[in-house]
Amino acid sequence: MSPSPYWLRDNCPCAECRDPRSGQKLFRIGDLPDGLAVLESEEDADGLRVVWSDGHRSAYPADFLDAAGDDGDGRTEQGKRLWVAADFARGLPEAEWSAYLASTEERIAVLAAIRRSGFALLRGVPAVEGQVLDVARSFGYVRETNYGELFDVRVEPDPTNLAFTSTAIAPHTDNPYRDPVPTVQLLHCLHSEAVGGDSGLVDGFRAAALLREESPEDFAVLTRTPVPFVYRDRQTELRAERPLIDVDGRGRIREVRFNNRSIATLRGLTDRELDAFYAAYRRFAAITLRPELQLTFRLAPGDCVVFDNTRLLHARTAFEQEGRRHLQGCYADLDSLASQLAVLERRAAALDTLEQLFEGEGAGEYLGEAVTMAQHMLQAGALARAAGAPDHLVAAALLHDVGHFHGSGLKLMQGEDNRHSHTGADWLARWFGPAVTEPVRLHVAAKRYLCATEPGYRERLSEASEFTLQVQGGPMTGAEAERFAAHPGAQDAVAVRRWDEQAKDPAMETPPFARFRPILARLMG
């Protein structure tokens, strides 16, 4: 089936149609002409190319028309792991706080677990007051409410919420009386000496899916009946009217709001509708209490659980007031968590791409030198690092010759200027800022500059470097050298050029690409 012309044109990825940095469209749908049609199209391994009836040309990547695996914004049940307690018999999704901070891979694993399973546990978070805010800020922004930036979960003499007592609390979601509801909750344990007070989680999506399977009509009732949720104290009154189970336009479970303490009086329903609602409500509540759905664990000082408050119901057992039990909590939101995860994954994929180039094509000959292309670039990065250069110059030295990949270097050795400094800088600009890309762009010009202005520099060039100097324009003229020296990036480019010339030693120990990954990850934006 051919795709809709307007859909296809609306998604044209070219720079005329979309901002290359943000991906935002540069036209309005009404700007497209009436009767838009495809005049010509060609599809091969590289993708789909289209010529339109208004003369515009579009090129789509090979996987553009493949919608497999598309789970929308990632907030619905699709693509998630709906679980029961036994699924975690071998352990909870967890990580040490120190490893989470130090390792991009560990942070990706934690955030992906929250997105897929609804929660993760961080161990070894310093058990000091306010630390929970640092955990939230490690992936997003703190959601401030009437409780403040953070709240204390401990016994209080005049509690305004059952959470601030020692009684057991059944599975529930927090703040259903807000719209939008805080979508991520964090609970950090500071003290846990009391007998009892174990924490519990229930996968509300799994409970809702079971209700849909066992009683479709009850499920339908809970998705279409607006429920009033209310919270009030002396300073606050909050209201929101939402169904207990919210679904998207395709019927996929998207959100669960379940908190019997906060449901106000339902109005405006017939007796039959009220009977149907309470029958469905009671059935759903019974499902959430099934033992096989309840995952129970004890938080120790330093443990911080992070969970999806639109999906997971949390609970706690009663505890004795004599023992000290103190948690601190705060709220954040899934959009910032998902954003951080997407950026980290995008950066990891970019680093994988670069590493594959070094390990693959980089193993080939480097322009007639005695080292491979990868050895040359890795040596340049190592020399910059040994010289105490800042991260952006280490990265520029490491990546300065990426423009030679994909066979471009052969053109240079055949006497054709491949402008690899410019093509390399433009390619790297998708991930790095000018501090990295401009020394790459100017490193060829820096050689021409040094050959023109520094006595003895040209005589130290290798035979291959002397050959490429001639192809690239030879030493600069006096006017060219003056203009180059005035360029704000000239000094950095000269530094990269010097490491470039030194990095051709077959006897030099060459570090692996992995040693540079943390530096590159810090610089990606």
Describe this structure in words.
This protein is an alpha+beta fold. Helix content is about 35%, strand content about 15%. The chain has 17 helices and 17 strands. The protein has helices at about 5-10, 95-100, 105-115, 130-135, 205-215, 215-225, 270-290, 335-360, 375-385, 390-400, 410-415, 420-430, 435-455, 465-470, 480-485, 490-500, 515-525; strands spanning about 40-45, 45-50, 55-60, 95, 120-125, 150-155, 170, 185-190, 200-205, 225-230, 235-240, 245, 255, 295, 305-310, 310-315, 325-330. The protein is elongated.
- Figure out the total of helices: 17
Number of strands: 17
> Strand order within the widest sheet?
4-5-15-8-17-6
What spatial form do the alpha-carbon principal axes imply?
A: elongated
Sequence stretches where pLDDT stays below 50 over 5 or more residues: none
User: Using only CA atoms, what is the Rg?
Assistant: 30 Å
Q: Roughly what fraction of the amino acids lie in strands?
A: 15-25%
CATH architecture of the largest domain: 4-Layer Sandwich
* CATH class type of the largest domain: Alpha Beta
Largest β sheet strand count, sense and barrel closure: 6 strands, mixed
Q: Which class best fits the helix and strand makeup? A: alpha+beta
Question: According to CATH, what is the topology of the largest domain?
Answer: Double-stranded beta-helix
Number of domains: 3
Going by CATH, the homologous superfamily of the largest domain would be Clavaminate synthase-like
